[in-house]
Amino acid sequence: MTETKTRRTSGRAGGRAARREARSNPLADNLRPVRPGLEGGTYRPLSNAAMDRIHQAVLDALEQIGLADAPPSGVEYLTGAGAILGSDGRIRFPRALIEDTIARARKEITLFGRDPANDMQLHGNRVHYGTAGAAVHLIDIETKHYRECTMQDLHDAARIADQLDNIHFVQRPMVCRDITDNREMDLNTVYGCCAGTTKHVGTSFTEPGYVADALEMLHLIAGGEDKWRERPFVSNSNCFVVPPMKFATESCLVMEACIAGGMPVLLLSAGQAGATAPAPIAGAIVQATAECLAGLVYVNAVKPGHPAIFGTWPFVSDLRTGAMSGGSGEQALLTAGCAQMHKYYGLPGGAAAGIADAKLPDMQAGWEQATSNVMAGLSGLNMVYEAAGMHASLLGFCLESLILGDDLIGQALRCTRGIEVDEDTVSLEVIRATCIGGPGHYLGAEQTLSRMQTDYIYPALADRSSPKEWVEMDKPDLIAKARAKKEKILSERAPARFDPITDAAIRKRFNIHLPS
């Protein structure tokens, strides 16, 4: 008995050592347990009949209600495409126009990074997670205080995201509150994000006149207009509608300028259920889908086939107060339902998830961020925006929470990947060899050693030690570990910064607020 126990203990110890050694070896990209663009789509809160009913309601809303407040240029584009301008000033969309637009709209989009290794293929159920949100406050995790965001904070967020494997793109997560001039703020936002990451960047513009300046900067960064147009690595997050069912006149003009400049567009409809969108989840999906289809007609009227992301971003209200509740289960359902409608039309799309109502990265934030991020991934959402770092229903951003979110999203991606079933994974021969004349356990098995790399993801910061080991390690604190990682990243040279000649050219042309 003792000899058998010794052999088993020795076998387990050897197995642990072998597993540690195997896990330390670098993996080829195709063997990584999780990576950008994993296929989701297994979670479907809407039945086929429900999606058909929503689609019919969308067509009715566009044909009978339409959208108000299109700019004169938009009226010309839309009526030229077949929309109808009513005597009440509303643009209405015949069913045939909507169906024709869906049929000819671009179904596959590549969002480029400055580094081609960060390119994202948007189609089908391929899932990517990233930042967004435009928070006005940064959370100081040591003092637990909220303060106004600065240009440096935005740049720091981009630098940190650049080093996180499970953050696939960087849409502006904060507003530079220390820059009061809107033009300079928009241009410095582009500079700060692009100088911090070689991943794809999303941003917005306050006025259409600022787009030309931003494009000039992007041409400098890219090495010329031709190189920019070949690989546009920044997209325009465009709130082209003011829900319910009105065009945002200035934003539409921004969108037209971005399309002319070769910049991909995120058609962003962000109604709030119970306030600027219907309270029922299905009704909020109907309105957001209708608004985005109107935007899709607009984009394709300006330039057929221009890359446009179907950005249904309806949010949830706590109907007791009217306040936004981005961390609710209803928000998770709403986002997953929107993802299904993207697939219904075969359009590349994005929506919001990962938002916490919690003010700090605590247990409440953990369940709020995990629930919606996992459901978004399982639903096959192409672009999961606001997936990390967002607190207080988008009012606050936390750099430490961004780092913790990388671990959380890794788990969400592993859920998204699902369970592979084939001759090897059902493991019949491994079970046979283990149980009949074998060691009676799988700890040192060849399959275990190979699968531990390809099938399992291991958190970078989360603690899985035993209570005894935890005490021996002086009870490590998760937030403190995130803070240490933040300080390490920010203490090193930013690999995404521009070469000195390019940076000097940008600074000569524009008033850059970030120190060189």
Automatic annotation (TrEMBL):
Its EC number is 2.1.1.-. It is an enzyme of class 2 (transferase). Residues 1-40 are annotated as: Disordered. One of its GO terms (molecular function) is methyltransferase activity. One of its GO terms (biological process) is methylation. Belongs to the trimethylamine methyltransferase family. Keywords: Methyltransferase, Transferase. This is Methyltransferase. The keyword Ribonucleoprotein does not apply. The keyword Ion transport does not apply. It comes from Roseovarius gaetbuli. It comes from the Bacteria.
